Amino acid sequence: MRLRRYRAAMSDRAAQPRWWEVRRAQNRKPVTYTCPICGRRLAALSEHALLLPEGHAAGRRHAHMECVLRARRAGDLPTREEWRAAQPRRPAAWRRLLGRLRRGTPDA
């Protein structure tokens, strides 16, 4: 899939995006973009999606809506909420305090 190649190219310049922001887009400019997922041409006048790696507008790319939906179903474009849900959670403050009390560690 071309998205993996796009990610690999981005890793040369910066860190891999952990999550993607996906927005609907439609432009009135007579411009043609290349979809980073399938590599086909994309007319700006058509309804499409704007992909922002970790919400940074500098790395934005225009993609076909069908390609984005297919990549989302395959798990290749996680949103910020999905990425955060997959991260290990730090114990709550009261659990950390209880652990210190059990170990006999005084508070600093």
Write up what this structure looks like.
The chain is an alpha+beta fold. The longest helix has 12 residues, at 2-13. A hairpin with a 7-residue loop joins strand 4 (48-53) and strand 5. It has 4 helices and 5 strands; from the N terminus they run H-E-E-E-E-E-H-H-H. The protein is elongated, with a radius of gyration of 20 Å. The strands form 2 sheets. Strands 1-4-5 form a 3-stranded antiparallel β-sheet. Strands 2-3 form a two-stranded antiparallel sheet. The protein has one domain.
Précis, in short:
This protein has 108 residues and is α+β, with helices and mostly antiparallel strands. It has helices at 2-13, 65-74, 80-86, 93-103; strands at residues 20-25, 32-34, 41-43, 48-53, 61-64.
SSE order and pairing:
Elements: H1 2-13, E1 20-25, E2 32-34, E3 41-43, E4 48-53, E5 61-64, H2 65-74, H3 80-86, H4 93-103
Antiparallel strand pairs: 1-4, 2-3, 4-5
Strand order of the largest sheet: 1-4-5
Span between termini: 52 Å
As for the number of domains, it is 1
Q: Give start-end ranges of low-pLDDT stretches.
A: none
Structural class: alpha+beta
Compute the average pLDDT.
83
Order of helices and strands: HEEEEEHHH
Number of helices: 4
Strand content: 15-25%
Shape, please?
Answer: elongated
For the largest beta-sheet, the strand count, sense and barrel status come to: 3 strands, antiparallel
Helix content: 25-40%
Please provide the count of β strands. 5
Q: Whole-number radius of gyration?
A: 20 Å
